[in-house]
Each structure stands twice: as C-alpha cells, then as structure tokens.
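Appendix B. Chain record.
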Amino acid sequence: MDLFKTKRIVIRLFQDSDFESLKKMMSDNEVMQYTGFKKPQPDERILELLSQWKNEGENQLGVWAAEEIETRNFIGWFMLKTTISSDPELGFMLEKNQWRKGFATEIAKGFLNYAFSKMDIKRVLASVNITNTASLKVLKKLVMRQCEEQKNDTAIIYFEIFSSK
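Structure tokens predicted for this chain:
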C-alpha cells in the first residue's frame, strides 16, 4: 500500500525484500552517525526494525519506505510518529548515494502536507544533531522553527511546525 507520492518518490509500506537495502544503509558509519542509533546496526536489529516498521506502517503514524518512482530503487525511510511528545515527529534516513538530490526536502514536505491535510495534525516536531548541517538545512527549508522541547541530549536541537488551519 502506498501512503502518498511526490513528483519523484512513492512512500510505501515496508516489505521483506527491503532488508538488503536497509542493511546496506544501516551498516554505513557515515549514514548512522547523526541518527538516534548513532552507529551501524547488526543484522538482527535491522530484521527486528523491518518487522516492526512493516506492521507500524499499517497505522496512520509509523515508518515507511521511500522508493524512487522511475527506478523503483529504495532510497531510505521516513517516519511520522510519536516519540518524545504526543505530537508526531518527522524523521528520515537516506542511503548515502541519495544525499544531495533534494529527496529529503521533497518527501518531508509531502509528509507535512499529509499530516496537516489528511490526518488533521496540528503540530509536527523534528529533532536533529547540531552537527548535521544537511538535515538542519532541510528543516529550515520546511520553515520549521527551533523549539524548547525535552532535551535529554545536548547535541540535539528540536524543531516544530504548526498547521496553517
């Protein structure tokens, strides 16, 4: 099942066949350094997450696979789910070879549109490591503003955006 499409990407439920792509991405030190995971994940943990995300995606909030429409290649995952607050958090991870192509901004805009128009959500959060300049740029392009959310980790900055409705 597809959640939605952007100009270049389809956001869809995870499938068992996504394991190898997830493994490639989530075993990469450079990809993982800015994530909540902070380091590459073992196969067992990736399998566990894949199973969880497959089921989660059935709900309105969860984690979904991002796939390029033209090539049908897996490019990463995006989440919209509650984490530290009752308001959902937007998050994402892209394969390194998909960086600097504008996918994160394009898909994140799609998720915000989905959250505000289809789910009637009023506020979406995002968190980013202070040294992750690429993700900071994405959040600024989304016109998210820094907020004072719960801070357990001083290396993390929280952002928020509200529905215009």
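Further analysis of this model is presented in Appendix C.
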